[in-house]
Amino acid sequence: MSTLSRRALIGSGVVAAAGVVGSGLLSVGRAFGLIPPDSGGFYGPGETLSYAAHRLLGRNALAREFPRAMISAKPFANELSPFSENFKAHEAANFAAWRLDVSGLVRSPATLSLAELRAMGKESQITEVNCEEGWNYIAEWAGTPLSAVLNSVGVKPEAKYVVYLSEDTNWWDSIDLDEAMHPQTVLAWEMNGSALPVPFGGPLRIRVPRQLAYKSVKFIDRLVVTDSLRGFGKGKGSASADAGYAWYAGA
Ligand SMILES: Nc1nc2c(c(=O)[nH]1)N[C@H]1C(S)=C(S)[C@@H](COP(=O)(O)O)O[C@H]1N2
Ligand SMILES: [Mo]
User: Fold this and answer.
1) CA separation (Å) from 125 to 47, 53, 76, 108, 174?
2) Per-residue pLDDT at 44 exceeds 60
């Protein structure tokens, strides 16, 4: 850590803020981009502390990657609500008409097929899925780096977050641009060398391996680049945060 960033950390008072996040401190934090969207609630000061510390110290840190021999023999897929008729029709057609819609604060909004996504790049990683309830598994994921998609549509300078949504579930979430541009954040379409199975989020699932698995939303069909999370749900940045979990779920 550089002296400058240590000084910024201490100088902003964020480290000492756990119990005392006042409006002055919040505005300093905001100026440094250190205030998460769910900072307002009971756990707000703690969330701010954790997010600020990670953002200052671990911007480029990598999620742990594992050797191939450690891939779980029986990965566990979380139970899902029943699929819509629309989703079932896509599945029956092998997702040929599945599209990822990319909009918001971008220069060239796009609607991308899986083939177009595949053509934009492939990044593989053997990482762990960590559920907040305590279970986990290791798998190999491959897909298009989210950074490749964002670079191709052109993110406008005022953008701060990428929101990802799924028409088929009410699960949605968002990450800041640092996390979105991180090399391990991928739009995965492959798992353990095969097309991503539907129970694990096929045809397209975001993998955010530096954070808990609830951030890794399945069946992604829409990305919205935005400077504010206010227009989404209750404004806390994700369905999970609206339900009381932390928006920033870094381990
Ligand atoms: N669309 C959607 N994505 C989701 C979920 C979900 O219910 N629906 N569950 C989340 C939670 S809480 C976890 S722990 C992981 C589980 O991933 P797995 O099914 O690959 O085990 O998916 C996350 N992504
Ligand atoms: Mo979970």
Assistant:
1) 28, 26, 18, 29, 21
2) yes
- From ligand 2's centre to the CA of 163, what distance in Å? 19
Q: What is the CATH number of the domain that holds 192?
A: 3.90.420.10
| DSSP codes, 87-133 | HHHHHHTTTTT-EEEEEESBSS-EEEEHHHHHHT--EEEEEEEE-TT
Is the CB of 219 within 6 Å of ligand 1?
yes
Ligand in nearest proximity to the CA of 164: 1
pLDDT band at 212 (very low <50, low <70, confident <90, very high): very high
Quote the pLDDT of residue 42.
67
73-104: per-residue pLDDT in tens?
A: 999 998 888 899 999 999 999 999 999 999 99
Where do we find the tokens 């707000």?
44
What pLDDT does 48 receive?
82
Atom of ligand 1 lying closest to residue 130 CA:
14
For residues 43 and 148, membership in a common domain is answered with no
Same-domain check for residues 19 and 82 = no
When pLDDT is averaged across residues 180-192 and rounded to a whole number, the result is 98
Domain boundary among 57, 78, 103: 57
Task: Looking at the structure, tell me whether residues 47 and 141 fall in a common domain.
Answer: no
Same-domain pairing of 46 and 122? no
What average pLDDT does the structure give for the chain?
A: 88
205: domain range?
Answer: 68-242
The protein residue with its alpha carbon nearest to ligand 1, atom 23, reads: 214
Q: Is residue 247 included in any domain, yes or no?
A: no
Pocket lining: 216 vs ligand 1, CB cutoff 6 Å: yes
- Looking at the structure of the chain, the number of domains it has is 2
